[in-house]
Each structure stands twice: as structure tokens, then as C-alpha cells.
Amino acid sequence: MQVNVADFNELSAYTPPFDSLDVLVQSQGFVRYKQAEYAKKGWDEVMDININSVMHTATKFKQMLSAAKGSIVIVSSVPGLQANIGNPAYAASKAAAISLTKTLGQSWARDGIRVNGLAPGLVPTKLTAVTTQNKERAEASLRAIPLRRLGTPEEMAGAAMFLASPLASYVQGHTLIADGGLTL
Known about the structure:
- By secondary structure, this protein is α/β, with parallel strands linked by helices.
- It has six helices and four strands, in the order H-E-H-E-H-E-H-H-H-E.
- A four-stranded parallel beta sheet has the order 1-2-3-4, with helices on both faces.
- The longest helix has 29 residues, at 40-68.
- The radius of gyration is 17 Å and the shape is globular.
């Protein structure tokens, strides 16, 4: 089933086809290019998808996660840790996701829910195609990454699986940076 998590009414009306939930991975993300995030419409659109929906979705599934002593993984991004030229809403929303991870991690621990985050660096996705599919931009980006390569979706999945698994049972409120050393 597909749900527009940025539409609070649609999310509220959603009835999941399952009775229990062990792990909730929130990887929603959206960006507006060409300075569109400086305008209210672009700013609001990015914030609704990238952070407002994260809180509303977490709240929607809190009881199920608490009953299962489950785990939430909130995917933010390296721009949440540093400036992002031309995308103020994206950077601010991902910084907010990192902060929300800490806040929910602290407040929901007593409910038995582990909350952690993942901040990927440059990974080829629809959102990063503007860079990864542009030879000059991709080469410039790779020069800034100590490992000199892009991350892969599989590597991000592995990091998320670790955070959601019993291997990370004593990790709470932490955002794991998986960026090939970019933020060093």
C-alpha cells in the first residue's frame, strides 16, 4: 500500500494490514532545486515531507512499536550536519531529523522503543542524480570524499539493518554517519 505521509489526513486515516511492528524505517526525502526552497511553497513542501511526516508517522506507529519493543531508524542526510548551497529547506529538515532522533530516543526509551538515525553521504538515488549523473559535479564531489567513491544503497541498507537489529540494542538517539569520510 502506498500512503502520502506528507498528507496528515491520509496518514491518520491509514489502517495498516498488520497487527504488530518491529521496525519502522523512515527514509522519506524530497528536495527542490533551482532556489525553489527559498520560496514559501518550496520550503513548506520539503519540510512537510522531510520532517513533519517523520514525526506524524512515528506517532502513528508508536503504540505498535512500544508493544513490540521495536526500533525506529530515521534517515537524515549529511547536509543535516553542514550547509547545503541552494537547498535551505533540505538541510534544515535533515538537521531537524537528527535532532528529532535524539529527542524521540530520549523520550520514547521508557516506552521500550529504540530510535536511531542514519545520515548517508553521497549515494546514487533519484534525489542525488543532479550530482551523480553530471560528470563534473560527480568528480568534484568524489574529490571531497576520502574513500573516493559513492556509497551504495546496499551499504545504507546494511547500516539501517544494524541500527534496527539487536546488535545495536544499547544504541539510542544516535545518528550513524555513513559518508565515506566526507564530514571528516
